[in-house]
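Reopening this one. Same input as before:
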Amino acid sequence: MEQEKEIQQVKNRLRDLAGRSYSQGIYTFTGFLGLSGQDAFWQIESELRYAGYTLEGGFNGAERVVIRFGSEKQMGYSVPFPIACIHIRPTNSRFADELSHRDFLGALMNVGIDRGTLGDIVVSDSEAYLFCLETVADFVCENLSQVRHTMVLCERTQGACGLPEKDPEPVNIQVQSLRVDAVLSKIYNISRDKSLELFRSGKVFVNGRLCSTPSRMLKAQEPVSVRGFGRFLLSGEPRETRKGKLSVEAKVYR
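Same output, byte for byte:
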């Protein structure tokens, strides 16, 4: 019930932003939306289409995104997304802890940063690239000095410049069909019952939309996010094996 109330609040906020953008001839922006927030947007997308919109997370493949209402065609001008990128690194890498996404996010929460102002945190070798709203970028740089026991430095970077590329793990699977539950089960090596439980608990998203239909057929390049597991997409067209199954390649982001 509480979750439904929160989703309704997100939808009302989206309607308000779209309406203000259209009536006042200005661009309006959401904060960073996670998968549930994006699904709320797609549920009412047809209502908001009149205002024009664009989704951006700061880099290609970002999971958390900001929605900008308004379009250059309508406005006659364009404004950039208010997204900053901050490089967070240990002051002395020799004595740094092995830091995870959870460590960086926890440290940001501890200095009073609101989750809605934070986008993706890309972690590599105890360093991180944080995407956040411009409104909190300076505060982060000035106040985030420690992650767990590791002292850190924060400095702005030019967008995704220097962002470490996380190579996906190539996986080849064989399935009876491209049903999302069948593909998911094979990729994460879990039972169909466990797979179905993920759908029932609202943890599977396809193209940023909550997927409650396990029998939905997947197409190549459609991103699938599974909370607690990661993200994957089919990277090629399937081919039929001699035994009548479909062999297909996938890219898996752990």
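So the earlier flakiness isn't reproducible anymore. For the record, The mean pLDDT is 93.
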